[in-house]
Amino acid sequence: MRYASIDIGTNTLRLLIAEPSGRDLRPLVYKRKITRLGGGYREETGINAASAERTFAALTEFKEEIDSTGAEAVTAFATSVVRRAVNRGWFIEETKRRTGIDVTVISGNEEARLSLLGVLSVLDRTNGRKLVMDIGGGSTEFIASSDGVEIGAWSMELGVVHLTEKYLKSDPPAESELALVAGEALRTINDLKARMRADGVDPGEYSGRGGAEFVGTAGTITTLAAIDQDLKEYDRSRINRHTLKKERVAGILKRLSGLRLKEREEVLSLEKGREDLIIPGTAITLLVMGAFGFDEARVSDAGLLEGIIIDRLKPGVSSIKYQ
What we know:
- This protein has a six-stranded mixed sheet, with helices on both faces.
- The mean pLDDT is 90.
- The chain folds into two domains: 3-108 and 304-320, Nucleotidyltransferase, domain 5; 124-300, Nucleotidyltransferase, domain 5 (2-Layer Sandwich), CATH 3.30.420.150.
- It is α/β, with parallel strands linked by helices.
- The two termini are 18 Å apart.
- It contains twelve helices and twelve strands.
- Strand 6 (129-135) and strand 7 form a beta hairpin.
């Protein structure tokens, strides 16, 4: 039996079609499209009509791929921007009308739980404590795990689309604008630590000084891994488990923030559509590493998308096998 999962994110839509093979999940189709569903979002009106149209078009393509591949079980989850939108009911109904896809809106904590399942499918599940970070367009999820068991999960309202549209007005960004991005990110990191303590989780135990491992997943961190390796084409096998050094992240941020948008578009390993978002995403990564005392990050290309299917198949499947 073939399974399809769809991740409807604030910035990126992703499709995975896979089938179980023993204890492994074998991917057959992987596609992603940047539609920036959260672009132009307003609290009063919700999802922007033009952003929704781009997303409906991408979902229509995904449905055609699902039908041609013969996937029998389809799960589509929407995250941050749809969670918050006053018109989310319209978006869900319109998606169903146009594509036949049923969309479920999941909470930030559920998103974090499923992301952890995906991350652990390509990493050593039992290797001590991990702090996992999933930077999204509308929110960032943090998950603390110990020997493969989730200890706590926190969804923070800190997303790259929001930061870009709110603060980055100049091209290239002005130092004052970058400082505003950093200020909001640092306030959110402090809030994260307070929430961890309130939930009985010591941030010090999930820091570099506490011997924990820092793991990043989703578009920002995988793009940084591609840039770090100067990849001409995106290669999931080279992204997964790549070690990203803090000083390299700092160097990439300095380089990219000094370039104009058009110049960033020419960076070989930078995914098209991410030219502006990569700056706040890289800043968040660097600031979290600094705040938690991490000198390096392990990179996982797997996350929510894989976790959705693994969760349906557990306990039979727990890892991803790339061909």
